[in-house]
Amino acid sequence: MNDQSKKNILVNIESPADIKHLSMPELSQLADELRTYIINIVSETGGHLAPSLGTVELTIALLYVFDLPNDKIVWDVGHQAYPFKVLTGRREALKTIRQYGGISGFPKRSESKYDIVGVGHASTSISSALGVSVAESLLNYHNHIIAVIGDGALTGGLAWEGMNNVGILKKQLLVILNDNEMSISKNVGSIPTYLNRIVTTPFYNKIKDDLWGLTQNRKILRSILRTSKEMLKTMLSRNVMFDELGLRYIGPVDGHNIPSLVYGLKRIKKLNQPILLHVLTKKGKGLKAAEDNPTEYHGIKGNGAAKHISDAAISYTNVFGKSIIELAQKHDDIVVITAAMTDGTGLKEYAKAYPNRFFDVGIAEAHAVTFASGLAIGGLRPVVAIYSSFMQRAIDSVIHDVTLQKLPVIFCLDRAGLVGEDGATHHGVFDLAFLSMLPNTIVCAPKDGDELRNLMHFAYTVKDQAIFIRYPRANTKHFDISKPIQLPVIGSWEIVQKGKDIAFLALGSMVEHAESVCQILKEKGISSTLVNARFLKPYDKAMLDTLAQDHDILITLEESSPRGGLRDTVLGHFQNSIQSPTVRSFSLPDAFVTHGKRDELIKDIHLTVDEIVEEILNIVSQSM
Amino acid sequence: MNDQSKKNILVNIESPADIKHLSMPELSQLADELRTYIINIVSETGGHLAPSLGTVELTIALLYVFDLPNDKIVWDVGHQAYPFKVLTGRREALKTIRQYGGISGFPKRSESKYDIVGVGHASTSISSALGVSVAESLLNYHNHIIAVIGDGALTGGLAWEGMNNVGILKKQLLVILNDNEMSISKNVGSIPTYLNRIVTTPFYNKIKDDLWGLTQNRKILRSILRTSKEMLKTMLSRNVMFDELGLRYIGPVDGHNIPSLVYGLKRIKKLNQPILLHVLTKKGKGLKAAEDNPTEYHGIKGNGAAKHISDAAISYTNVFGKSIIELAQKHDDIVVITAAMTDGTGLKEYAKAYPNRFFDVGIAEAHAVTFASGLAIGGLRPVVAIYSSFMQRAIDSVIHDVTLQKLPVIFCLDRAGLVGEDGATHHGVFDLAFLSMLPNTIVCAPKDGDELRNLMHFAYTVKDQAIFIRYPRANTKHFDISKPIQLPVIGSWEIVQKGKDIAFLALGSMVEHAESVCQILKEKGISSTLVNARFLKPYDKAMLDTLAQDHDILITLEESSPRGGLRDTVLGHFQNSIQSPTVRSFSLPDAFVTHGKRDELIKDIHLTVDEIVEEILNIVSQSM
User: Fold this and answer.
1) Which residue among B72, B85, B91, B283 is the active-site one?
2) Element (H, E) at B382
3) CATH classification of B3-201+238-301 is 3.40.50.2300, yes or no?
4) Known catalytic residue: A365?
């Protein structure tokens, strides 16, 4: 019987129950099939390939040993859960992953009973798994709760807070540390170094054994050891940190060896206490290119993706990357901070050019901001490059350590607005609301790449205030770094085109969208003014008054939740006016938006150019 | 020469320079004088007494050894910095501490050049001190940067994120762990347990010495030890956790022994690397009552404070404390989570009554929320009791782990609005903005104690949604737990009094304020409707429409920043109406509000009853 005649196993796995009767060789075969299946599909669809290739064997071993859905697995971040999705009834559905109407790229409660916790951001798994475990204990259930967390996510403060409480509550909880020495970028911080030392101490087992032997023969040593069990434990383990935190450390074990994983998990299953199992995996395992370049293969675009990008376009991310180098060349005191997103925020080149003025602090957004405040106190001009949705994790640091202190920290918020396939956890839709509430703060958004560059140079001129520049995960047609820099006046808006009937006030990404709307309206005989409302705070009061005098209707457009952004700014402005203009508004909905291509999402939320035109024609006809 | 004839030293200390020439006995005398001085003054003024009594000797030793203001001290939280304030030119000013127009109860950058970092929330010091240290290193300064952090604040995730980066950046930074086994309430978590074990291992030094001896004689052991320096380090230190994180651990030392502190700090001053100095102090040191009851003496009211509280009144905090017990009696699945604020949030009695259904997670707000989401997933009904300003630290946990997951977590936000003497870091003024932006979320505020109780019982009936109940640091005249519970209809407002000219829409604490306004207006012939706008989200659309029809002017009042609250809700509601009513609004300013008594602050921001009346008379005269 040759390999080809082997019966395909994966095709018959409809739920975890179908795995439990397989033999060890069959489990290994399943791993091979699963890995091939995921590579084939994700190469087409795009998605988080490398992380998911690293967890194939671990997922199989977990589903083999534990009894789902009664036992429960919480995946940290969740981008490594593709094998889990396939084996929990979503084999065919994987073909739709991250697509509009398809399954999510992350665990999602509404998608499957096996997705006990919905997720997308890092470092939450220990806390939420602990909550589930405590609840089950109080309700007298006896299921096993497992959190799987990567070594990168362990640098997040929330993971620390979680571990600190795991140790004290002493409930059953298995924390599996999926250690691939890599979160998205290369990990930074002491924790990864510490983990690495555990793994690379070849004498560990020898010394452990030898010392045990010694205590049999050496009376003095044994008597000393006996005086302190704690000392003994310390001596015999390099892994005291987790032990000190109250988690029994077990490992490290090979995360690609199913029999050894199964053996270990079966033993652990009998222990009713907090345990940290240290598993070594290889990100991108089984796909040579991904193993060699795990950062590039962390998330990949599908085969169809490239054709959507026009040659003339450049992403805002790249504009930031080029402009920050220019800014740093010009000003010696510029330093840049990112939280594990060197590539994602476009800082790869900058990091090479200015290694001493670049700080990747790991997955630690609050620290990134508070650290930046210290850098500003120390006399430097820090630029924090961060995604809009991750800014949500550091709001108190912004308030307490930056804004209240009147420190001139520059924040460049990538991924503001709809991000596409990553979906609800990653859309950057709340930033305008939680930033415009802050006193003494500048909030702005460029209409194109040139303006992003100009705003960054403008930001450098700001003293005693934080400034936030938000821009989308999108391309821009307009960027030429050889142009002279034009510094905008603080709070000033820009008239893009002058008309008379309607005035459009568009913020950031919506300027281009509004241009298309204006074009169609023009064809229908409606003359529009289009204003680039690039500053949300402070805003252009004088221009707003003039616009209200000269136009029947003002229309606000913003890629943001409906509360707290441009709409509320404009409505608030006219609150105390004798005569208020008619103001109509377009924004994202007051609801979480699903995943899919940007175009599909814009359609999903009824924000297409055609729909806006239709709505405006309605408004115009009503007001006449 | 007897003690009384001793020259008073403290009276001549105008700056840290005046300390540096003192002898050891004089330093000790200074400590005694300083302690007495602080006790005498803070007993009158009120303030954070116990924490500051614990740092008297440490502060003196730091100022003696280091050279301020070039060397820089960052105080975590800052409530232990009263001795520092006195010795850095604010001896007389201490008499005004926390008072309107006086000095702040926390370090404040605008107050003194010695207050290098402004602060008030916990766990930020390592990150900001690291920032300062890195900046000075890049700018080629060679000053010493010191962070002083309590063992309680060490449980916060931000401190962990900071330590993780201290180790890797390898800059000079002295982290002083001020270990008093007590943050505000008794500490919880593995870290305090770990610290306690370090301190209570009596064999530590003996074993260390003995093992060193052994290695001289025992060839085999020595050869083993030589194979791994790391192993040796582990064996010889119980304090590997900090070492593993890249901070050289030194300690523990007696934090009340000035000569030993000075000796240690002088040695450390020569080391150019990250160091953790473990200092043992006693909270409330020197005041018997405070030593015995450090939690009660953490923050004390001044001698004059009691008279402001009427006998008939009860605080909202107490109403919550009594109502949560009632709720837990009624429903077995209620569990309560607090982040180191058992007393502050009114949970002392509950914690005693339901120890198994109570979780103090330490200073770890994000974990509190994500842990609660896990409890809800597990089938319980978690209530998170948290201050409004500390809620700022867990916004992503609310979005990512609760709201997006449609989990019915109940949040009770104490200290919403102006908190008084604690000032800008503690005012809870942004919650309405950052909560009303969330989809699928209920945000409400009771007008009095009875309504807080009713809203809590209402909250239990809510499924698949988070609900936030915000209430002020204030007393309420209306609370009777024997009354029948009245569940409000979701989103419904309540007409408190019916008039015809003006309609007041008041949120929470502002209902009582508006009642006084209405009373005066009535005397001036203006008839007002007063509405208790208890639900901000969802709100009472039908009533709002009716009010607009029946009244010339609508007035919104809220104890909140101007953005994102009731004002914006009402303006947004009428945006698309054919005829918009005149809406005028009263709120806190778009600025950080200083510290002082609530009455003084209300006056400071021009929100007194008289000022509102005057403003409304203006509005009325203009619109006629």
Assistant:
1) B283
2) strand B381-387
3) no
4) yes
Give CATH 3.40.50.970 domain extents, chain B: 3-201+238-301, 314-476
Tens digits of residue pLDDT in B313-371? 899 999 999 999 999 999 999 999 999 999 999 999 999 999 999 999 999 999 999 99
Q: pLDDT tens across B591-601, in order?
A: 999 999 999 99
- Confidence band for A196, pLDDT divided at 50, 70 and 90: low
In which residue ranges of chain A is CATH 3.40.50.970 found?
7-201+238-301, 314-476
**For residue A578, what pLDDT is reported?**
78
Q: Which of B136, B367, B397 sits opposite A165 (nearest CB)?
A: B367
For residue A6, the model assigns a pLDDT of: 75
With CB atoms and an 8 Å threshold, state whether A139 touches B576: no
Query: Distance from A297 to chain B by nearest Cα, in Å?
Result: 25
Say yes or no for a CB contact (<8 Å) between B240 and A228: no
The yes-or-no answer on residue B463 being catalytic is no
d(CA B66, CA B102): 28
| Given A98, A171, A283, A534, the catalytic residue | A283
Chain A CB contacts of B206 below 8 Å = 227
| pLDDT, tens digit, 9 for 90 and up, residues B123-179 | 999 999 999 999 999 999 989 999 999 988 988 999 999 998 997 777 889 999 999
Give the distance, in angstroms, between the CA of residue B411 and the centroid of all CA atoms in the same chain: 17
For residue B147, give how far its alpha carbon lies from the nearest alpha carbon of chain A (Å): 12
B395 vs A contacts (CB less than 8 Å): 392-393, 395-396, 434
Q: What is the pLDDT of residue B335?
A: 97
Shortest alpha-carbon distance between residue A254 and chain B (Å): 23
- Identify which has the larger pLDDT, A406 or B227: A406
pLDDT digits 0-9 by tens, B463-508: 999 999 999 999 999 999 999 999 999 999 999 999 999 999 999 9
Write down the catalytic residue from A33, A136, A181, A365.
A365
Q: Would residue B307 show up in a list of annotated catalytic residues for this protein? A: no
**Cβ contact B367–A161 (<8 Å):** yes
Write the ipTM.
0.90
Q: Which CATH class, in words, describes the domain spanning A7-201+238-301? A: alpha beta
Least CB–CB distance from A396: residue in B121, B211, B379: B121
Q: Taking 90 as the threshold, does the pLDDT of residue B24 lie above it? A: yes
Helix, strand, or coil here: A359?
A: strand
Q: Is the pLDDT of residue A305 over 60?
A: no
C-beta of residue B82 within 8 angstroms of C-beta of residue B103:
no
Shortest Cα–Cα distance, A285 to chain B (Å): 28
Return residue ranges of chain A for CATH 3.40.50.920.
494-622
Q: Which helix (H) or strand (E) holds B495?
A: strand B494-497
Could you say which of B166, B220, B400 has the minimum Cβ distance to residue A124? B400
Nearest CA in chain B to A568: B568
Cα distance between residue A273 and residue A528, in whole Å = 67
Q: Which residues on neighbouring strands pair with residue B278, listed in sequence order?
A: B177
In which element (H, E) is residue A126 found? helix A125-138
Count chain A–chain B contacts defined by CB atoms under 8 A. 422
For A330, the 3-state DSSP assignment is: helix
CA B592 to chain centre: 16
CATH class of A494-622: alpha beta
The shortest C-alpha distance from B456 to chain A (Å) reads 21
Q: CA A581, B493, B498, B432: dihedral to nearest 10 degrees?
A: -60
Residues of chain B with C-beta less than 8 angstroms from the C-beta of A366: 127, 157-158, 161, 393
Q: What is the CA radius of gyration of chain B?
A: 27
Cα B280 to its chain centre, rounded Å, is 23
Question: Which one-letter amino acid corresponds to residue B315?
Answer: S
Query: What fold characterizes domain B314-476?
Result: Rossmann fold (3.40.50)
pTM: 0.91
**Cβ(B498)–Cβ(B549) under 8 Å?**
no
